[in-house]
Amino acid sequence: MTKLILFVGFAGTAAFASGCSGGAAPAASRGQGGDGGADAAVGNLADGGTPSQPVDAGGTGGSGTAGVAGIAGIGGSPVDAGADGPVTGVGGGAGMPGVAGAGGAIAAAGAGGGAVGGQGGMAGAGGSMVVTEPACSDMFDQTLQAFSIDISADDWAAIQSEFITAAQLPDSMFVQYEPAYYPVVFHYGSETVSDAYIRLKGDSSWREAAMYDGQSGKMQLKIAFDHVNSKSKFHGVDKIGLDMPRTDPTFMRERIANAWLRSIGVPAICATNATLTVNGSLYGVFVAEEHVNHQFVTEWFPDNSSGDLFKGGWTPETNTSNPNWTRLDTFWAASTAADLSSIVDVPNSLLAWAAECLLNNGDGYWGGDHNFYIYDQGASGYVFFPTDLDSSLDYLGQFTSDPIYWWSARNQWLLPIPQHYLIMVGDPALRAQYTQAVATQLSRLNVAQVQSWIDTASAQISDAVVADPHKPTSFIPGDFERAVALARSGVQQRADYVSGWLECKSTQTGPDNDGDGVIWCNDCRDDNPSIYPGAPEICGNQIDDNCNGVVDEGCP
Ligand SMILES: [Ca+2]
Ligand SMILES: [Ca+2]
Ligand SMILES: [Ca+2]
User: Where are the beta strands (DSSP E) in 122-190?
Assistant: First the structure.
């Protein structure tokens, strides 16, 4: 159930796209290269501008990558990219700030564009992210991997018993529970590891499988190559997670979501599908996952790999014996925008949340509250990044969660909205910056490419899914195909919805469906005229009347 989150370095440049091409804004940085890039809205314009050359924008900025082309500006008639905007054009909306890497200073104005030129962006404050995604072990190559283990009959009986009995522990004991390790012989192709171990893994997904499917429920496992010798690795890997909650009928959410995050520079694990064979019999289909450890941190933060990594914001995963608790206290004490900026890498964290928004994640810091990591980069602060994305893509089956008020589309949502996210929700400047981050990540979402990944994975695993003896007991023929089709179409639906939302945000025009004077993209509930930003908070009704993310605040 835990999942991750993430971020990037950043120094944006905003450009105004006008009548024609979106202005291209350069950005400089080291680490995560900056995507400068104007991003205006709508209009019937043709091309966005072309990416500019990286510039050295001061600071310690190095060679940022070229800016992302701006989206077409508003108004005007179609013209060739790069040409001046038509005189009759309405002028472009303000572009969204681009993203640059660490150390970027004020970026230069966007070049090109129409009548209105580019505008300088925000100063960089990012971390030292890598420019390109790190390589993955070949054990995570994007095929259906085949892992097999030999385990003694006694140990196999023991782990299956543990699967049921531990799942029945009270909550307070389950969260503290340390699964047992069992020795196995691991086979991969013609190779053998004779001193591997397995243990159970999972949180709510473990308990759900045991509760609903009993002994036929699918155990999720860790395969450890480093249990005997902490330095041992196999194909560069210390541990492999085998993840497959019964709530993912596509069998691939983690694989696809992580692949996209990695491709856009959000720290994320290597993942692919794999079958597990136990003592010669197919056990099931999983997503095989990289273990988040110091190696992962080193790959994603190569210039700053000694910081504290906390899972869920509390559990130290690096420097486990001596993390900086004082700084963590400061992180959790943050309640204002100024607090946030002083301890959090806001630009990169907003980019991580925005990426989750596009992935339709139902269980991260965006879209939930607990599946995330924070990594302390030092001066530039903690950066969020997501984990455990198996509640993304087709999860919940609807794609119209408001990018800011994500809980708007969920009935009776009562869990607290995460603290640092709430600071953004309540601060106009941060909301605008986050909106810009959403636009940036949308510009990085190649729908056809992600759909092609889904098609590829589906073809690779469909036979194995049919043969899988540990599918949920409720699974019926066609569930897999329907879920995959929904995930596939959902990538487009989500992009379309967010695109429309950004257009509404940019133009500040759109329907006000409940007639409360607040257009849909500004309203957390556009189906209820008594709920809107700025509405009186009515005490005791268990409703967030004023759209600040808090129910009945300030009430006796
Ligand atoms: Ca409204
Ligand atoms: Ca409220
Ligand atoms: Ca209320």
Answer: 145-150, 182-188
The CA distance from 417 to 425, in Å, is 10
Q: Which of 429, 260, 405 is nearest to 336 (CA)?
A: 429
Which residues have CB less than 5 Å away from ligand 3 (the ion)?
A: 537-538, 541, 543, 545, 552
Instruction: Find the 526 Cα to ligand 1 centroid distance in Å.
Output: 4
Q: What is the DSSP letter of 401?
A: -
Residue 523 CA, ligand 3 centroid: distance in Å: 15
The distance from CA 397 to its chain's CA centroid, rounded to whole angstroms, is 18
Residue at token pair 């990591």: 373
What is the pTM assigned to this prediction? 0.78
For residues 507 and 74, the answer to whether their CB atoms sit within 8 Å is yes
Ligand nearest to the CA of 538: 3
Q: Which residues contact 484 (CB under 8 A, 6 or more apart)?
A: 250, 252, 454, 458
DSSP 420-470: HHHHHHT-HHHHHHHHHHHHHHHHT--HHHHHHHHHHHHHHHHHHHHH-TT
β-bridge pairing 271-278 and 145-150: parallel
Q: What is the mean pLDDT of the segment spanning 325-332? A: 98
Distance 532 CA to ligand 1 centre (A): 7
Q: What is the pLDDT of residues 118-133, one digit of tens each?
A: 333 333 333 445 557 8
Residue 13 has pLDDT above 90, yes or no: no
What number of helices (H) and strands (E) belong to the chain?
12, 14
